[in-house]
Amino acid sequence: MKKLHLRIQLLAIVGAILLLGSCNETPLGGDFLEKPQSSDVTIDTIFSTKLKAETFLWETYNTNMPNGFPYNWDRYAGGMYASMVMAASDEGDVYDGWPGSNNVNAGSWGTSYNPEDDFGRHYKGIRNANIFIENVNRVPDATSQEKARMKAEAQFLRALQYFELMKRYGGVPLVDHVLTASGDVKIPRSTFKQTVDFIVAYADSAAAVLPNEYEDRNKGRITKGAALALKGRTLLYAASPLFNTDDPYVSASGDTRDLIGYASYDKNRWKVAADANKAVLDWAAGSGWAKLVDDNQDPAANYEEAVTDADNSEMLLVNQSNGWWGAWWPMFQQFVMPRGMYGGWYGMGVTLNFTEKYYKTDGTDQVWNDSGTGDEYLQKMKEMEPRFQASVFYSGAKWNDEYGVVQFYKKSDGSNAPHYPVNGVGYMKKFLTRLGWSGGQVNWPVFRLAESYLNYAEALNEYSPMDQKAYDALNVIRRRAGLPDITSSDSRYNTQGKLRQAIHRERAVELAFEAHRIFDVRRWKIAGNEGVMKGEMWGLPLHQLDDGSLMYDKKVFESRAWDDKMYLYPIPQGEIDKGYITQNPGW
Amino acid sequence: MMKKLQSMLILLLLAVIANTAYSQQKDQKWVWDNAAKAGLSEKKAVVDLDQALDKLEQAFGVSFMYKSGLLDGKFVPPVKHVSGTLDEAVKSLLKPWNLTYSQINEKAYVIKSIPEEARVLREVAAPDTVKGTITDATDGGLLPGVNIWVKGTTHGTSTDNNGKYALDVESLQDTLVFSYIGYKRAEVPIKGNTNIDIGLTSQVYNSEELVVVGYGEQKKISLTASISNISGTELKQTPTSNISNALVGRLPGLTAIQSSGEPGYDQAQIKIRGIATLREGAESDPLIVVDGVERGFNSLDPNEIESINILKDAAATALYGVRGANGVIIVTTKTGKVGKPEISFSSNVGFQSPTRLPELVNSYEYAMLKNEALANEGKAPYFSEQDLQLYKNGTDPYFHSNVDWYNFVLKPYSLQQKHNISVSGGTDNTRYFIALGYFDQDGAYRYTNFNPDYNANAKYQRYNFRSNFDLDLTKNFTTSVKLGGQLGDENFPGQSAGQIFFDILKANPMTNPGIMDGKIIGSVEGAPGGANPFMDILTSGYHQNFDRNLNVNISMKYKLNSITQGLLVRGMVAYDSWYRHSVSRSKGTTTYRIEKDPADPTNPIFVKQGEDSPFSFSEGYGRWRKTYAEMALQYAHDFNKHAVSGLVLYNFEKRHNPNLAYGVPTGYLGAVARLNYNYNLRYFAEVNMGYNGSENFPKGKRFGFFPSFSAGWVISNEKFFPENDVLTFVKFRGSYGEVGNDRIGGERFMYLPSVFNYGGGYNLGVLGQNYQWYGGSREGKIGNPDVTWERAKKTNIGVETNFFGDRLSINGDYFVEKRDNILWYLGTVPALVQANLPPVNIGKVRNHGYEIEANFNSSIGRKFRYWVKGNYSFAKNEIQYMDEPNRAFSWLSQTGKPVGQFFGLTWDGFYNTEEELQNAPESAWATNLQVGDMKYKDLNGDGVIDSNDMGPIGYSTFPQVTYGFSFGGSYKGFDLSVLLQGASKVSRYFDQMAAWPFDTDWRAAMKTVLQRWTPERYANGDPISFPRLSSSPTGGQHNYVSSDFWLKDASYIRLKNVEVGYSFNGKLLRELGMSQFRVFANGVNLFTWSHMKNFDPEAPSGRGQYYPQMIVYNLGLNVKF
């Protein structure tokens, strides 16, 4: 009996000791709750070598590069929710009711929801740029030249992001350092002027450091030309009537007035803008590579290549964050392809309002009747200029060899033919021509040289009315598009105002669907005009008669809402509530 | 502090070693082992008479003298209490043995036999023997070990393993008292009968009843904490696959929401006393402890479970320290009882059927409504008259199909079955409980074996096993081994249930005929919409999980009476291991597109799309393992009228899971202390202390100290309390304490400095040549060096009352909880910062409520017994602080409102006339309001309906009120029990295709939209419950913007459970060796009353993409040998 007790007690003791000091994870050791070593990456790791620091630069590119193509279900990663920005201006429309562009068209957007933009998201890219700028000098194995160049890239990207903010909101908080939660983070808005100056200053400094071009493997990084183009575009906006005016779009005074534009009109801003854009053209001429695409016989082919080939001599900067648009992911084709083609759900319709901005091949205007036969419809469509042929897909046109000629119309029995219905005259074709069942590569153009010609022409005509150089610049674009030149002797173009209209129209057509129009009509202060951002939008739907023939009708498909406060976007209410930032007037 | 604690424990260990050595010499004194714990008031303990007298010597400081051998073989029979004065106590001990005593001086007594002649008289007067069998009145099971004595004496016996007893009585006019732990005491006048069989009813209250508390158990009378419990017997009445669903409605203070009926995934989300933190997810879930170790309990078989207790207030949960703030659920598995082996077999077969599914419109209605919607927008009709006609008469099943997708995809009934066998019993030093269970639940999908190669239907099969052994190695050393395991085999379609149900509502009735001529139809030319929801099940292969879960507890207990009476040391090591093997197989399946023959558009041509392909295969693994250990020192002793007990416990846990962040294990470490005191079963006091740490917090902030204080007063045990038969028991109790919560929703190791990670990137290079992706890096989360646990300060006041001799009990609790340090995101940091800022401990929530519970047990005559129970719980919380920006209007802020409060516009009818429209406030979501549009309240009166008018609407997802009402009874062999359960002050928000017709143009429409607004319907005075139709509703449109119109009152009352049983009795049964043969039928969710028309009231908010809750109809039998 005694022995048993002894044994059991020994057992209990041994057990208890084992329990308390069990295996390698002894709770008696002070480190029981300490996190074991694992592979932690900190900011020191990232900036410890050039190779790792570059990874952060690539992500800085990724988060700052504008993207006009809708990306997956992400409301703000590109375009607007399940649609493109073009569908929220007089350029186009989406037939289905739910994509985000409809909210803009219906006027149902504002301080709590804006499908086109997420104010805070801009500052993510800016934060990344700031982190890079503040740390790149720590990288031990990069030369000072390399560091300066990479820093300039980050500074450019930050400036680009501020431009994206400026064109939407006016003056914005200028965050030029990495913010921490505990520091002073309630940074108020800078004035419009300060914001423009900030962008221009960093575009200048980047242009001074960045190279004209990169070796092949680095193609896609920011060049001097892109920096100059950013400066040119920024100054053009700054000189435009929305901002450069004695008479703001809504009454505003004092500090608010300074947030939404300059205090008064200054004609010299047009000169500064013209010079900045001229600098881009001069740079391009000397760069050895940047030039408009004009190698093909067919002007339509030139234009198609210029806007679709992700990698052509006209692209000063494109968004290369995308490697390949799969046909089914990231939803791009479903959102933008014409209904029923390559997975397209509804397609981007092109309005008649916008179609009328295109010329006929001979440089004159097309006239549409209220109604007409299918043959007449097709005849008139075929008379349209090459850029129209490359940008708009109408019933009776050929998409490609696979689809051949496609008709879309309402059948005589009331049902829909394939690919029907669409709002407008047809579908947007621009950007999409090289996509198929396996997807395709198309990169969003951020700066295209053609824009700089148009910027230059516009600014110059405002500063120096009907300057011959303005006609010349405009004609460079028209000639590439297969259109006849315009001259100051032509009564259609023989005043500053007429030339201005021609430049505006040329810009609309040349830069169609590239997310310029929605901001151009704002900076020109014409967004509130009937048929622009407001009022009736027209289409030319076809229907089949009992005998099988087709008829078109000029028809209003939608009436749109506009309020002048919309010239600038509202700061989200959630930010206003935090009490550090001033709302734009009217909101 | 930890170092100190460790050295203390080592010292204690040394003391144990020293004392066991010492006890070797005084071996003969090891007589007080069980008495030390049980004391003389423990009924079940049979104590030798000399030991009992020794105890009295100690207690009163006297000595007893007697002739050697006089007390040999004599013992203290089971009695209710030996208490009172010394004289009374000694008398009651000696009387049954014909002994008497006399006092010879102040401290000494002499014990001697009663003279012979006196004894003879007694023997003559006691010639009769009463015999009988004692059973459980509810299930007829035999009860061994029931104490029986003659009322007013200590003369008694107890039942044998077959529940039989025989007792000599002095007079057949005496009254017998039957008493058994957990059962209501019965007093039966003998009235001349010599055979008295009775059934004891389990009872709500018994002064000796033990209740499981944190790290131990306690007598119910001495509880000062708020604890509710349920027995395994009640759990078994609900034939659900998992335990959480069986708890619903039965425990006051427990709220459960079952948001899916999918086999294997239908467990309910449980909250105790609502939510007191800022998150409604796992962060506010209670801690679940099975046999002392944190474990899931859902896959346990109810047959394995002895009891489930929920610990609610700080007095009950402080011991769990940083883990106890959300309440604790303690599950105790069964152990064997001394007796011959009892084999119990039960078998159940049931059918499941969805509780509620939306009724969808048919194709004709759909087309008509769609045209109406287009007309409302001034658009041309999409469907021609001919289309409408074809939909109506159904003559063109190819191009004008009409499918009710719910009916098509789901079977009306699916099978489930459950079988269980258990063996339990024990000898004097070994007790065992062994159980095996099998559960099999089929999914509701139809046509899942369309492809002969595989079956994609959901299926959940579970094998449970358990073997719990208790071994008494010596009188003082006991050990127990508990082994539990579950094997789960699951089969699912390759697409998730969420996706399948999403696709059902994504489709419209005319999009596709589903299956036509034995072919799966992928698409149909000209049909709007397109996806065939059925293809998700039929063409995406199947997925299987094979889960293996093993739980092991090994514990030992050593009594240290040699050091001092009532001291014991115990330890436990537990090891849990979980492993999952997942297999996915998919196979391309041929589908067909129906196209129109150009020559004859009514003639369908089936165009083959894709080919059957061989199976593809992929597999994956998941696993974790956990080690838990605890070591405790316990003490319990009665000093005359003072009873003291205490506990010191040390525990730690490590959990390894390769999928955890950083791939490193989680750890806990802690210590627990408890001190109880009670005076004469009248005054009770208890102090609990939890001191523990979590690896998620930085050094210096890892450990927290959580004390609680509680007290109770049994006023009915006071002398001044009048003896009466109406109010028989009254106890007041109160507690205050602090408890922590470390499940705070953040990532792991938030205290570490900011991290970066590799991700993102950019393409560089020339397209077609060297265009390639260069990986990026990103700033990750920012560290919060001060992160710590949430702290709950809980106050509880309770009262327990019994009426009419304990037949009716009514208990109530009121509680207030203030929680602070809630981990929450800074809400006022400008978006300019754009860092992944860590949450910080800033939130504050107040939660308060009450629970009332009433039980009534009675009988009419001896055969008909019945009981009625009810419970009602209310809990409401309020956010007190969450760093919210100053909103323009008070109703916009979440602060001051309950957690999870829904916000939106307040619906105020429809615009019925043009005149009403004239005076309508502007809408931020519409430029032209039309008749039939929704009217909303302009909360700020600025003449514009916009987001500034979005105030609080309805309640939140978790009900503020839950209640249960049950009753039942037995008559002869029949028994019945019924449970009604309900919830109120609860809301759900439905939108998109769960509420709107034509979502994204072509999604489903429900029959409820037929009551839409149209000028005609308005003019006719028809019921209108839906705005004018839109052809493509989106949340940005006036009628579809967030409002309480889409918020549904999710209150409900359910006939949750009914069970009817019959136990056969009779000779045959006994000849077959059976002690019980019972057949029963029961069901779950049998009927639901609620305001929600389209979905079950427990459906999750959103767009209806969930597997529906099920009604279960079940038949079963239970046999015991």
Set down the secondary structure blueprint.
The complex is a heterodimer of chains A (587) and B (1121).
Chain A: H1 2-20, H2 43-46, H3 50-64, E1 92-94, H4 101-106, H5 119-135, H6 144-169, H7 192-209, H8 224-239, H9 254-260, H10 268-287, H11 299-308, E2 315-319, H12 332-336, E3 348-350, H13 352-355, E4 371-373, H14 374-382, H15 386-391, E5 392-394, E6 397-398, E7 405-406, E8 426-428, E9 444-448, H16 449-463, H17 468-480, H18 496-510, H19 517-523, E10 535-539, E11 542-544, E12 550-553, E13 555-560, H20 573-576
Antiparallel strand pairs in A: 1-3, 2-9, 3-8, 4-12, 5-8, 6-7, 10-13, 11-12
Chain B: H1 2-25, H2 33-38, E1 47-48, H3 49-60, E2 63-66, E3 75-76, H4 86-94, E4 99-103, E5 108-113, H5 116-124, E6 128-136, E7 147-150, E8 156-158, E9 164-169, E10 175-179, E11 186-189, E12 198-200, E13 210-213, E14 216-219, E15 227-231, H6 232-236, H7 243-247, E16 254-257, E17 269-272, E18 287-290, E19 293-294, E20 305-311, H8 314-317, E21 328-333, E22 339-354, H9 363-376, H10 385-393, H11 405-409, E23 414-426, E24 430-442, E25 459-472, E26 477-493, H12 497-506, E27 515-516, E28 519-524, H13 534-538, E29 542-559, E30 567-586, E31 591-596, E32 604-609, E33 616-639, E34 642-656, E35 666-679, E36 683-694, E37 703-714, E38 727-741, E39 756-764, E40 772-779, E41 790-803, E42 808-824, E43 840-860, E44 864-881, E45 902-904, E46 907-910, H14 914-918, E47 922-923, E48 934-936, E49 944-945, E50 951-953, E51 961-971, E52 974-984, E53 987-989, H15 1015-1020, E54 1047-1049, E55 1052-1064, H16 1067-1071, E56 1076-1090, E57 1110-1120
Parallel strand pairs in B: 2-5, 6-12, 18-21, 28-31, 47-49
Antiparallel strand pairs in B: 1-3, 4-5, 6-9, 7-8, 7-10, 10-11, 13-14, 15-20, 16-17, 18-19, 20-21, 22-23, 22-57, 23-24, 24-25, 25-26, 26-29, 27-28, 29-30, 30-33, 31-32, 33-34, 34-35, 35-36, 36-37, 37-38, 38-41, 39-40, 41-42, 42-43, 43-44, 44-51, 45-50, 46-48, 51-52, 52-55, 53-54, 55-56, 56-57
Helix pairs in contact in B: 3-4, 9-10
